[in-house]
Amino acid sequence: MSLLERVPRIDTWRQYGEKIKTIKGHLKCSNFHFYFPTRFNVPVLQGLNLEVKPSKYASFVGLSGCVNVKNLREHIALVSQEPSLDEMTIKKIFLGSLPGQNVTQNDLEKVYDTFDGRKGTQRSGGQKQRIAIARALIRNPKILLLDEATPALDSEYEKIVQKALDAAAHRRTTLAIAHRLSTIQHADIIFVIKDGKMYEQGTHKKLLELRDLL
């Protein structure tokens, strides 16, 4: 209950504040520092400098205010490691397949009225991830965040989900956080974070040639 009752410093539901009409997806950080509120003595990011151009796919890897916040978040979608699915049916939800691999109502036992189960327990890992991708894309966000979007899936489901993610990243700025190199090898640029600082950056091929951290 304490978490639900906590009042954040930034009111994300406020009606005032500048509303951004157009998001290009051009991201730039200059001397960026980050700490968790409960651990100010442990810096997470220290003086981070980076830039991601619009529609580019960037990935982050490492060892294991003044605007209307609600409006800003409307331009961002998240696909996380463990999707949070409500206990309901898949009514009117497209499963995030690629063209030619569309999931039709005939592929589901009770078509789009198929019950998802508590936290999506009636769906396979691959199906849950594709539902999460479809849910993220339905708003056509300019910025897509992929937080370990391909968890411990078997090779078959991992390939299916990865193809869906690659299609989702097309023509939008994508930031991927990953530990599996196979999931980010097609990224336009990879940022290697070590001890909260920028350790190295470059393409998958360039970083493999260095063979230091990766």
What order do the helices and strands come in, and which of them pair?
Blueprint: H1 2-5, E1 27-36, E2 39-52, E3 57-62, H2 69-73, E4 76-79, H3 125-137, E5 143-147, H4 155-168, E6 173-177, E7 189-194, E8 197-202, H5 204-210
Parallel strand pairs: 3-6, 3-7, 4-5, 5-6
Antiparallel strand pairs: 1-2, 7-8
Helix pairs in contact: 3-4
| Poorly predicted regions | 87-103, 107-120
User: How big is the Rg?
Assistant: 19 Å
CATH class: Alpha Beta
Give me the number of helical elements: 5
CATH topology-level fold name: Rossmann fold
Q: What would you say the CATH architecture is?
A: 3-Layer(aba) Sandwich
- In the sheet with the most strands, the strands line up as 4-5-6-3-7-8
Task: Give a written overview of the molecule.
By secondary structure, the chain is α/β, with parallel strands linked by helices. The protein has a single domain (2-210), classed as Rossmann fold. It has helices at residues 2-5, 69-73, 125-137, 155-168, 204-210; strands at 27-36, 39-52, 57-62, 76-79, 143-147, 173-177, 189-194, 197-202. Helix 3 packs parallel to helix 4. The termini are far apart.
Nutshell version of this structure?
This protein has 214 residues and is an alpha/beta fold. The chain contains five helices and eight strands, in the order H-E-E-E-H-E-H-E-H-E-E-E-H.
Core attributes:
two-stranded antiparallel ribbon, Rossmann fold, P-loop_NTPase, transmembrane helix, Multidrug resistance protein MDR, ATPase-coupled transmembrane transporter activity, membrane
